[in-house]
Amino acid sequence: MNEAVVEIRDLRRSFTQGGVTIDVLRGVDLRIGKGEIVALLGPSGSGKSTMLQAVGLLEGGFEGSIRIGGKEAAQLDARGRTEMRREMLGFVYQFHHLLPDFNAQENVVLPQLIHGATRADADARAEKLLGALGLSQRLAHRPSQLSGGEQQRVAVARALATQPALVLADEPTGNLDEATADVVLAEFLRLVREEGSSALVATHNERLAKQMDRIVRLHEGHLE
């Protein structure tokens, strides 16, 4: 069996609003192998973002087991979870969240510097990733000077900059028109595969989900 990058068992998350308890995740189990790209399909409000926040160690209040790279996240303190997130994970969101005062290359360089890379190595990797996404001529452009598709390509390069074991993408093309979304998703999938990372991609778009290795559906708090 392919080595597991992440193993999730009996993941649960509830919220209380107005005195009413809402069970969003009701015992989710999922295993993602090394190099596997999994689509997390479900309508808006089904809990896809909640699940990605849990796997991404971005929010507490969850019950169950999340093992990333063989390590149990529940056994880590806040510092340990931060280190695991920095060492193991990359993130792509529906909105690019690029730093507006930094150009495309600098946005991809910064997480590498935080990760401990030298500036020279970070620059070289940023140029390589952005070049692979067709942005060699846009390295010095700030986000406001880039199109929506170009901004999201920079966000993809940033997510992969530190060579994460797992990339978590939450509706990564949801803010783009259909034609641009197709191109950006294709480039995202190609680059993830070339880098040897795994990915969990949340989407409500069945057509896009079919381009990935496997589809799991979130329905009433369970995976199907």
From TrEMBL:
The keyword Lyase does not apply. GO terms for biological process: lipoprotein localization to outer membrane; protein localization to outer membrane. GO terms for molecular function: ATP binding; ATP hydrolysis activity; transmembrane transporter activity. It comes from the Bacteria. Transmembrane segments: none annotated. Keywords: ATP-binding, Cell inner membrane, Cell membrane, Membrane, Nucleotide-binding, Transport. GO terms for cellular component: membrane protein complex; plasma membrane. InterPro entries: AAA+_ATPase (IPR003593), ABC_transporter-like_ATP-bd (IPR003439), ABC_transporter-like_CS (IPR017871), ABC_transpr_LolD-like (IPR015854), MacB-like_ATP-bd (IPR017911), P-loop_NTPase (IPR027417). The keyword Lyase does not apply. Pfam families: ABC_tran. Residues 6-224 form the ABC transporter domain. CDD domains: ABC_MJ0796_LolCDE_FtsE. Belongs to the ABC transporter superfamily. Macrolide exporter (TC 3.A.1.122) family. This is ABC transporter ATP-binding protein.
